[in-house]
Amino acid sequence: MEESIISLSAFTDYFADTLQLKNVDITSYSPLALAYIGDAVYELIIRTKVMNHGSTQVNNMHKKSARLVNAKAQADIIRSLVEGEELTPEEIAVYKRGRNAKSATTAKHATVADYRTATGFEALCGYLYLSGKLERLIWVVSRGLNRIGELE
C-alpha cells in the first residue's frame, strides 16, 4: 500500500504542477461546485471499473456504467453508507450541504429526493477529490457499491 501512496502523491503533485493549479481553500466552493467535479470523478471511477472487466463493445460498457451513474444508484450508495455509519462527521456534513443545496436543474429520470440525495453524494466525492483524499474517495465509492450489491 505504501508504494501506491507514493505514486498517488507523485501523480497529484505532477497533475497540479503541470496544469498550474492554484491552492484553493475548498471550503470556499459551493456544494453545487463540489457536486460538479464530484460527478465527473465518480463517473471516471465507474468507467474505470467497467473497463477493468475486459474489452467489450462500447455500448455494453456504456449500459453497465449508466446503471451506476444515475441519481437512483448514487442515492442508494450514500443512503447505505449513512445508515451503516460508514462516514465521518465531516463527510456527513459535506453530504448534507450538497443534499440541501438549491439547484437550478431538476431531475430528469429520478425523484426529487433521489436527485437531491445524489447531489449530496457527488458533493462528497468532489470534496474528497479536491481535498486530496483519493484513497478515502475510492474506499467510499467501493464500499457503497458493495453495500448496494454492485461490487463484483
List descriptors:
Ribonuclease iii, N-terminal Endonuclease Domain, Chain A; 152 residues; 0% strand; mainly alpha
Model description:
Helix content is 70%, strand content 0%. With 152 residues, the chain is mainly alpha-helical. It has a single domain, classed as Ribonuclease III domain (Ribonuclease iii, N-terminal Endonuclease Domain, Chain A). Helix 2 packs across helix 3, helix 4 crosses helix 6 and helix 4 crosses helix 7. The protein is globular and about 35 Å long.
The radius of gyration computed from the alpha-carbon positions, rounded to a whole number of angstroms, is: 16 Å
Give start-end ranges of low-pLDDT stretches: none
Percent of residues in beta strands? under 5%
What do we call the CATH topology?
Ribonuclease iii, N-terminal Endonuclease Domain, Chain A
> Number of helical runs?
7
Overall number of strands = 0
Shape: globular
Order of helices and strands: HHHHHHH
- The quaternary structure here is single chain
Q: First CA to last CA: what distance?
A: 22 Å
Fraction in helix = over 70%
**Average pLDDT score:** 90
CATH homologous superfamily heading:
Ribonuclease III domain
